[in-house]
Amino acid sequence: MKTETRDLEDRLFWIPKEKEIKDAVTTDVYFQYAVEALEFAKINPRVTMEVYTRKTPFSDNWAVVCGIYEVAKLLEGLPIDVDSMEEGEVFLTDPNLAVYEPVIRITGKYTDFARYENPILGFLCQSSGICTKSARVVLAARGKIGMSFGTRRAHPALAAMIERSSYIGGIDSVSNVLGAKLLKKEASGTMPHAFILCIGDEVRAWKIFNEAISKRVQRIALIDTFSDEKIAAIKALEALGDDLYGVRLDTPSSRRGDLKKIVQEVRWELKARGGKDVKIFVSGGLDEAEITDLRDWVDGFGIGTSISTSPVLDFGGKIVLLEDDAGKRTLTAKRGDLSGVKNVFRDYSTLTDVITLDSKPPSKNYRALLQPLIRNGAIVRDFIPVDELRQRTVENVKLFSKGTARMIVK
Fold first, then answer.
1. CATH number given to 190-298
2. What are the Cα distances from residue 80, in Å, to 110, 113, 140, 329, 373?
3. What mean pLDDT value characterizes the chain?
């Protein structure tokens, strides 16, 4: 009797292969139904679709778009034109306005790209949410080191995307090995509690780490496994001396008490014993509020769950223009949306965005945020190196976080 196997037939894990994403197999079935029905009726208009969101899950009126590179690779080869904002661009929302800022605009025969709406939004929504959250965390840290520790809180298939998005948002280093490799960076990390538990003694564990691990890795001792953090910090300094680069507190919220005062105690005792240059890092469930509270007393933060599980940005794709075979154009939109092809122009000197149906900027001070990405299936944009993207994003976020940016309609 043949035993039914519960294994997947063609893969180990419940993840799509790259070709399946590229072939739009990961789409929702109703897009397939729409294509089949349109082909049956021999209706296939040329359309313009805009991808946008009117709101974000954050309190400010700005967010950061991320995932443009993957969208470009997804749509490459299709007979369509695509315009988009740059990777890491800051865009605005305004709950008082019906208008919005498209981050991507697609033009082509509808059935040529209909199945791709699902993965387009998937690439953008999560990457942008993580990038925006990272930018907010970096703002809260005010120049203190930020380390991404969060990929263990997410599906492994998303690890590299999480690290790239967080890095573009301004995070200084990433801990995931594959994410760092694809970014062409050195993965950054300290040591897990499990390592110290396996050794059974904090001091011995720190010494073994110091002897075993390459000297290019900074010696950051985890100091909350068995002992009071202050006592453990003193022991770490005595054990490693000048080799000790820093200490990390990962105390769970159920036992940490007043973490700021604990950090102050650690700082005092290290300084009193000649360890004034020893860095203090804090991790464990940190968000903007905790980072703001601690930033004057610590040198860096390991941020995990709040970045890797950050809220997605709720982008949607909406048709705003139809064109028949004779070239006749028809403005169209579903209820609650605005018809017509929109352009976004920005004056960086005043942080003013103009949303208009006009294809020309309102003045020479404005530049178009939507730029050519794909023309007839070919990628026509040179992708900016990730370090340059990160620097540009951080600088723009600082400008727009001041709360003076605004959207106007013309």
1. 3.20.20.70
2. 9, 8, 41, 17, 11
3. 94
Tens digit of pLDDT for each residue in 364-380? 999 999 999 999 999 99
C-beta separation of 153 from 133 below 8 A: no
**CATH node for 18-128+311-409:** 3.20.140.10
Distance CA(54)–CA(61), nearest Å, equals 10
- Name the burial class of residue 1, with classes exposed (0-12), middle (13-18) and buried (19+) by CB atoms within 10 angstroms of its CB: exposed
Mean pLDDT of 181-188: 96
Helix 386-400 vs helix 159-168: crossing angle, to nearest 10? 60
Instruction: Give the whole-angstrom CA distance, residue 121 versus residue 127.
Output: 10
Domain boundaries along the sequence of the chain:
18-128+311-409, 190-298
Say how far apart CA 225 and CA 195 lie, in whole Å.
10
What number is the average pLDDT over the span 317-331?
Answer: 92
- Unique residue bearing structure tokens 């809180």: 153
